[in-house]
Design a protein that fits this description.
Strand content: 5-15%
Number of helices: 16
Radius of gyration: 20 Å
Bound molecules: nicotinamide-adenine-dinucleotide, magnesium ion
Shape: globular
Helix content: 40-55%
CATH class of the largest domain: Alpha Beta
Largest sheet: 7 strands, parallel
Strand order of the largest sheet: 4-3-2-1-5-6-7
Order of helices and strands: EHEHEHEHEHEHEHEHHHEEEHHHHHH
């Protein structure tokens, strides 16, 4: 039996992970579940999966949760609170695998803690990797942790890599990666309408059901920009070796182009239980709950080059990785702040990219070779972006 800790259990990826885990009760024991504020969902999960630990990050909500658990049939669950508790449960000795499914920079420290303690890290939280880059990959290499990608594209790429491939390695047999993207809800929206699209329109993704932040990122295509950086780090590739391909049907989840001209693609329904089950079961396969792909219903697949004018966030992501140092951290932090402001109705959709671009212009590139430098740059970019947003208002 493998012990599993799910960071961000109440989110879209967390829920899908528990769905897969519950199909294999003989293989997994849920050791720890964490939530930020959604104690109702966490309580239901505790009743169903009976973890050893439950973490409620929000200290204002933990007391009520504690009382509910005490009065329930799972009263023996240990309850922790605060951000440090996330690191603690990620490093527990009886945890073998950690699902890193917190959204945004909040996931960095606990995901790093899992990597440092040599766990199998199932990485959904792409922001943590983008912001800490080489430091994260070094931590994994030094501790002997196993890093398995959950992002559907990176999981697809990983599945198409040569036998015995490990993340972080550079395979000389691979010429290019073809990173697919649906293009999101605004792929064909007239450009003149983009400034006025609403948060509700932006989070309505045509193919995937996801958390709000990543849904907005998909609408701006910053998600693909972050994923391009994620792919450079996970597969040790250069930005110019990654070709973004718009594939609106989301059936191919990415491809690997080999030096002999072979292109391997991984296909399947757009259901995150597939990459989650793949990473959990590796190197074998088991039931994920996802239905079989109906290839006749798919009928056709289209491929287009990305439009950098429509999606300036893509250009900004390339600029950030090419500038190096703290710039990917700045890109990520500015994006988190801008997306939050957009969801709160304080910023127009098209101003998300403007805020990020101005923030990147305002902060000079510096090395990112310590965690302290990275956390500093993250904080600086957050306050610069907040300031820029108030200036845009006026
Ligand atoms: P979500 O918003 O549905 O869930 C986020 C989870 O993180 C929740 O459990 C929440 O309690 C927790 N959380 C939020 N803020 C926190 C904080 N400050 N401290 C501690 N916990 C916090 O998000 P999601 O869609 O499940 O995405 C999670 C991660 O997985 C993101 O990094 C996203 O980019 C990545 N991802 C998601 C999908 C998908 O299909 N949803 C696909 C690929 C990658
Ligand atoms: Mg993805």
């Amino acid at each position: 039996m493998k012990g599993i800790c799910i960071l961000g259990a109440t989110g879209s990826i967390g829920v899908s992970t528990l769905d897969v885990v519950a199909r294999h009760p003989d293989l997994y024991r849920v050791v720890a579940l964490t939530a930020n504020t959604n104690t109702d969902a966490l309580f239901e999960q505790c009743l169903e999966h009976h973890p050893e630990y439950a973490v409620v990050v929000d200290e204002k909500r933990v007391q009520g949760f504690r009382e509910k658990i005490k009065a329930s049939i799972v009263a023996d669950i240990k309850i922790l609170s605060g951000v440090k508790a996330l690191e603690q449960v990620a490093a527990l000795p009886n945890v073998d695998s950690v699902m890193a499914a917190i959204v945004g920079a909040a996931g960095l420290m606990p995901t790093l803690a899992a990597a440092k303690s040599g766990k199998t890290v199932l990485l959904a939280n792409k922001e943590a990797l983008v912001m800490s880059g080489d430091i994260f990959m070094q931590t994994v290499a030094e501790s002997g942790a196993q890093l398995l990608p959950i992002d559907s594209e990176h999981n697809a790429i990983f599945q198409c890599m040569p036998a015995a491939y490990k993340t972080g390695m550079r395979s000389q047999q691979v010429r290019r990666i073809l990173l697919t993207a649906s293009g999101g809800p605004f792929r064909t929206t007239p450009l003149a309408e983009l400034p006025n699209v609403t948060p509700a329109q932006a989070v309505a993704h045509p193919n995937w059901d996801m958390g709000k932040k990543i849904s907005v990122d998909s609408a701006t295509m910053m998600n693909k920009g972050l994923e391009m950086i994620e792919a450079c780090l996970l597969f040790s590739m250069k930005p110019e070796q990654i070709q973004i391909v718009i594939h609106p049907q989301s059936v191919i989840h990415s491809m690997v182009d080999y030096v002999d001209g072979t292109v391997l693609a991984q296909m399947g329904n757009p259901d995150m239980r597939i990459p989650i089950a793949h990473a959990l079961a590796a190197p074998v396969r088991f039931e994920s709950g996802a239905g079989p792909l109906d290839i006749f219903k798919v009928a056709r697949m289209d491929f287009e080059a990305p439009d950098f004018q429509r999606f300036p966030c893509l250009r900004l992501a390339y600029e950030a990785i090419n500038a190096g140092g703290i710039m990917p951290t700045v890109l990520n932090a500015a994006n988190e702040i801008a997306v939050e402001a957009f969801l709160d109705g304080q910023l127009r959709f098209t101003d998300i990219a403007r805020v990020i671009e101005r923030c990147m212009d305002a902060i000079a590139v510096r090395p990112a070779n310590t965690l302290e430098f990275i956390l500093d740059a993250d904080q600086q970019a957050r306050s610069v972006s907040k300031q820029l947003i108030t200036e845009l208002d006026g």
